[in-house]
Each structure stands twice: as C-alpha cells, then as structure tokens.
Amino acid sequence: MFTGIIEAVGKIREKKVSQSKGMALKIHAPFQSVKNGESIAVNGVCLTVTRSQKNGTGVLFTVDISNETVKKTTLKNLGIDSAVNLERSLKWGARMGGHFVLGHVDSTCKLVSICSKANGKIYGFSYPQSLNSYIVPKGSIAVDGISLTIASCQKAGLFSVAIVPFTEEHTVLKEKKVGDELNLEADILTKVIVKQLQEKRK
What we know:
Blueprint: E1 8-18, E2 22-29, E3 39-42, E4 45-55, E5 58-65, H1 67-72, E6 83-88, E7 107-117, E8 120-126, E9 140-143, E10 146-155, E11 158-163, H2 165-169, E12 181-186, H3 188-201
C-alpha cells in the first residue's frame, strides 16, 4: 500500500520485452537501499523488486512486469532514460499523507490541457466513462502514482486537478505535455462505497 506522496524520480536504465514473459525494467533510484522482494510503485504501478544493487549515489533495481500490466498501463511506453515516479510501500507508524493508493491501476488517462495560474497550474485529463462513478469533485485520485485532489468534473469523461509548483517540479509532471497518457487509479474508499450502494439496490 502507498500514499501517493512521491519519494523520488528515477530513470529507466534498461528495458527488456518478451511476448511470453512480459517486460523487465532496470531502474536507477536515488535511494540508499532497496530490498529484493519489496513493493515499489513505479508511475503508480505496484511492482516487486526482483534484484537490486548499489550504484553510485543510489541503487539500481529490477522489476518484472506481467503482460496484463504491460497492456493496462503506460509502462510499455517507457524508454531508456525515461523519468518515473517512485514511492516505496507505506511504513507502519509513518505519517500518512496523500490517500490510500494500492498501485492497482484502473486505466490510463490522457492529458488534454495545461493552464497556468498565479499559484500553479490546472491539468485537465480525459478518462474512460466506466470510471464516472469514482470521479467526484474534491475526491482523491492517483495520476501516475501522485495523490491529487479532483478540482472539478466539467462533464463525464473529463476532470481537472490543481498542481502546485512543488509537485510539478518533484514528479514526472514537469516532463508531460498535452496528449501524453498517464496511469489512473481511483480512490479505493470511493470504490467500496459505490460497490456497497450498488449491492443494496439489487
């Protein structure tokens, strides 16, 4: 489990694709250590570290990605030197910022607009209409693993978020442009509530 508070931005150093086995990524991260077997969110996707080693001022770790995850997320679009958001799993007793993020991506979304404001920017995203029930004003959403608050839902299939300069500068958002796809995970608490209401109506 994660919080959506990005710890660092890593870089893809190696990418291997196999039709039968999916994909493997080797990522450099500015961490002191990463343990084999631990969970780490890469652009919001919960992955398991299979190998790790010290590398200069950080660590180099490998994650294996199933074909299903490759198909459902934007990880397939990454190339050598691509920047990725990184967050290690929530530690018991640590401060809880953001919101509960599982790293189980629902779908991808598309960046459709970036508007500058006095104290930051407004990013607009389009998303599959199947997620309409989970996209609510002032609700939580994870975009490429970043915990964000939905500022508005202009109409079905579109929502916007306010991005402060710190968040943009310390995540992959600073490299994104209109037309790019990002990973989207709706708030698990909203999903549970919607599910319960649907069951009661049956």
